[in-house]
Amino acid sequence: MIRLSVENGLRALLGFVHRIPTVSPTPVKYSTIPLTELDQSTAEVLSSTGVDDVAKDERTLKWWLKVGVLSGVSCARIALFRYITDNIECAPTGYSYLIPFLVAIYDLWRNQRATRNWTRPDDAEDDLLCIPITFASRLRSIILQSRLRCIIPAALLALSGFIITTFQDARHSTYICPIVSGKHFRLQTLRILAFVLDCLILTGGAELSGEGVRRDGRKLQTLLSWGYSLLGVVLSLAGWVIYLTATAEAGTFVTSHYLRSAWGQAVLITILTVSASQLLPYYGMAGLCVLAGFIASYFNLMSTLFEGQEPFPLIPASHAFAALFLLCLGGLLFLLSRTASEEEPQFLHRLNLISRLTIAVMFGTGLIWVLGQSRLSHTHPIDLLIHEAAKSHDIWLKTAKESSNDLVEASTNGMTMPIQEGIKPTHAWMVQSAGRMIENFSEHLPDMDLAFNLDDEPRVIAPWEKIAELQNRAKAQQLPADDDISDEWSPERDATWGPIEPADQTPETMFIDRSFQKIFDPYVAPACPPGSKARTQRVWDKHDLCIGCIRPHSMGQFPTDWSVTSDICHQPDLAHMHGLFLSPATFRITQELVPVFSQSSTSVFNDIIFPSPWNYVDKIKYEPSGEHPDSRYTEKENTLFWIGSTTEGVSHEGRWKGMPRQRLAHLVNNNTYNHVSILLPTDEPKSYSYQIFDGLAPTQVLGLNASVSITDPIVRCRNEDCTDQKDELGPGGRVDFQDHWRYRYLFDSDGAGFSGRFLPFLQSRSLPFKTGLFRQWFDSRVTPWLHYAPVDVRLHGLWSTLAYFAGVDANVDGRKIEVKRHDVQGRWIAEEGRKWAETALRKEDMEIYFFRLLLEWGRLTDDRRDTLGFKFPS
After folding, report:
1. For the chain, which ranges sit under pLDDT 70?
2. Angle 456-462-468 (CA atoms, 0-180°, nearest 5)?
3. Co-location of 428 and 563 in the same domain
4. How far is CA 393 from CA 27, 516, 675, 702, 758, in A?
5. d(C-alpha 359, C-alpha 376), whole Å
6. Does residue 754 sit in the same domain as residue 815?
7. Backbone angles phi and psi of 707, in degrees to 5
8. By its UniProt entry, which InterPro entries does this protein fall under (predicted)?
9. Distance CA 480, CA 87 (A)
């Protein structure tokens, strides 16, 4: 259909070429003679002077028909925008940079702009100067005074816009666009259709403006026509919004964050419409499109350059300069053509001059940003991060050794471990295992009750304001004097405590169930500080990385600080990048500060983290054997290995596309549509730069080895999400856990909660790659780049990290790419992690940690908590 429309348009254009009038060579001023002047203007249609009632009714009906068509096309465009935005992960960048060019072509055909015939300059008497002066004069006439005077700047803007769109290839996210859905081709088609509708709306708006002879009357007519068209759009959208609000799942249609943005865009569109209606008589629709295209492209380029002041994402300085130069040249030529062709009214000449100076300043500003682009890195970031990790860990060790860890020994009754009745057998093992851990030091504890979270997901998340208020109240209290400090527990602490009811007979609860729902907006964001990005921003673009979310915790693609990397409050894009936020399998939570002991938690939850019974009782154990040996690092297969099930969240409505486990499998095995950036050596000695490849190139071209698979069957899914994942990810069979030790690189990722594999991975001679958001009791003890290789949860740095350790030896487009394997660094990290696990992550360390935690818990639950403590003898 689109192809047929384009062909018909070209035939019509060719049919009208012979109708372009010839122009007298006399150098006089010419004006645009729009074809609508051959008939009556729309303003005259609405006038009853000299027109009979029948003709007036027909023309009025025709005018209202045009308004209705424009409103309908605008509604269709908004519906397309909504659909494309909702499925943006499959959509190409778009073709909006071509709009000024297409509208300029339409304007050339529709209005048949006049031109001056070129006359040879008579001031070049010198034969040597005659040819260049004549050529320059001829070129000036073609660019600034011919019928192409608006098309040439628009073409330069289009070329600049195309270059700018290529910068997006370096920042593609790993959010999945499934091949089996067929949406990629559909979105490409809809992008083209949206582009065509944009052009139709703009040209339709120009036609509807009436283009009357008198500019003042045309301003009013334009505003009136466009106003009625927008009113039709608003009324249609109001009905649509009411319907969607009534039928959408609670909290999924719109939130206050998007509503504020929507109102802002509505105000912006209103201002732009009113401004354009006043400028249209002077500049025409083609001129307005060129000006608007220049402004939008310039700020898009500056935004991209501002985010690209580091080597990642890659923005070649030569390409950035070309885009900036073509953009400013196009804007400048347009303004010059206005005065050279005498189209510019006299009272706008000063504004034209100021605009030219402004473009010159904008070019200079942009040039500064272009020259500031950092394309090369003369040291690999991982080398720096390994060095810094060793120093950071030494400081931590020194601090830990010098800190006072003396513990109070209080006279307490021997403590038994009665367990609440009615616990499900599938979860009872966890409480029993926690009891086994406590039994080793229970004689030193007072009587206490402990509430253990049996779910994988955390349970307590209080709003930031509530936490801040309590912290301020605590800071306002005075510390007790040394003489008032007591080291004796209160006698008969449990005298007033009620009995523990069986779990299956508890009639009341303060927890609310929000399983299978998106939780970021209603619960996670309010737990962050008011000025944080999680509270103030939302990222709707799932197709590209949120560079501003990555910067605080990364050096290019590589995480620098794991506590900051797993901090949610500066990363609003995580709302659609983790199963906990997309659709948790179990989410029974409270927003009150309730003391709940959980095995893991994320940065904004308030659960009390204790050592996991999963690791304490060795649910998954590092146990190499003759059949499954743990060979030396360099003797293992040079392969990244991960296998697991889809347990991170319950997928429905396509939410599996953002979950890390599925994204990992798709990135390695089926990344057909998105590009990847990999840090590789350049032709210059000891220098690196990010290079862009097709999604499948890391394994098929660069030769990186990765064995990643989802186990069959697909679990925790509903309806078509199950079949879509099976068709897209190709699940495979299970393997013996001890088979992991064959591989040199072992990947670890969150499940519904923490991953129980990480400690066995540390104990092995393999190098663990770790990603995720859940925090455990030992997080402050292990150091990234010293004990393991961290990977951002977006997984955009996975290939660069693997290329560093595994090495690359390939020929790409006739160019040799070679990265030597960093076996020394990889073996060192693997051994440091192994030694540290044997030193600080033993079962004894879990018991000591839990003992200290429960001592503090005992103090908090004691009636004498304000004075209970320990002091050194004088």
Report:
1. 1-52, 112-140, 210-218, 247-258, 308-309, 401-427, 500-507, 872-874
2. 140
3. yes
4. 81, 40, 36, 34, 19
5. 30
6. yes
7. -115, 100
8. CAP10 (IPR006598), O-Glucosyltr/Glycosyltrsf_90 (IPR051091)
9. 60
